[in-house]
Amino acid sequence: INRKDYIQYDLSEIKDTNGGFIIDKSELDNGKKTLEEWTKENQNITFLNKNDNNELPKFPIDIDSAPKCEDCSSILIDEEFLKIYKCKVCKNCKKKNPDRYSLLTKTECKQDYFLTESELNDVDILPRKEKDNPHYKYNKMKLYLRYQVEEFAFKKWGGEDGLDKEWVRREEVKNIKKSKEFEKKLLEIRKRTRAEEFTRRFKAREGASEHQHDWSQAFGGNGDDEKYEENMIRRKCKICGLETEEIIF
Ligand SMILES: [Zn+2]
Ligand SMILES: [Zn+2]
């Protein structure tokens, strides 16, 4: 086991930070720690990890007045979250609690919390981070902090229960809409088939003037079809299907 794997910072750099953290070098150097001890120790000092720019954090001189993570009191809070959302949270806690600290798009806020466009556009109600939209160059993506969205939505709808009730109400409206749409479609189909039937008959009549009917042999007149009189014979045009009826006296 390489000890380097369990130490995520460079001791020589720590000396330059004017920080208030004192690490007993001999303790780290004695090399007699078990893997478990190393891991445990490492967990306790991860707050000394380098940031994204590969720099050790700059500690403020007055640690007492520095903003601290509201969850764990670490002073290594996410500066962007503080600046944009006025939210004091460190990167670790942010990662650990997506329920609170994940970011929601405007669409998600509308779908999950039933917030309106005007509410979401009001910076006084909800702060947001603007990000370039990968799909629309001129339309920036707006990202909202989940716990803030939830807080506002609970206030708006009367708590979590109120929000759930609103969800049920909307589902019902959707279902009614769906069954109405279904009915409408059925009616449309009925209307269309009826219209097609009329068109077919109309065309048949129109077509009559464009061709000489080619009449079949007379048929019927023997009483085997209840719909017709016994003394009625019929002929059918082989081209347009038009039927003639003749009564035989
Ligand atoms: Zn924290
Ligand atoms: Zn015909």
TrEMBL record:
GO cellular component, one term: nucleotide-excision repair factor 1 complex
Molecular function as annotated in GO: damaged DNA binding; zinc ion binding
Residue stretches of biased makeup (Basic and acidic residues): 203-214
Sequence ranges assigned to domain XPA C-terminal in this UniProt record: 100-149
Swiss-Prot/TrEMBL GO biological process terms: base-excision repair; nucleotide-excision repair involved in interstrand cross-link repair; nucleotide-excision repair, DNA damage recognition; UV-damage excision repair
InterPro entries reported for this sequence: DNA-bd_dom_put_sf, XPA/RAD14, XPA_C, XPA_sf
Source taxon at top rank: Eukaryota
Keywords per UniProt: Nucleus, Zinc
Region (Disordered): 203-226
Protein location: Nucleus
Pfam family, one: XPA_C
Residue runs in coiled coils: none
Identification of the protein by name: DNA repair protein
Species name: Ascoidea rubescens DSM 1968
Lineage, broadest ranks: Eukaryota, Fungi, Dikarya, Ascomycota, Saccharomycotina
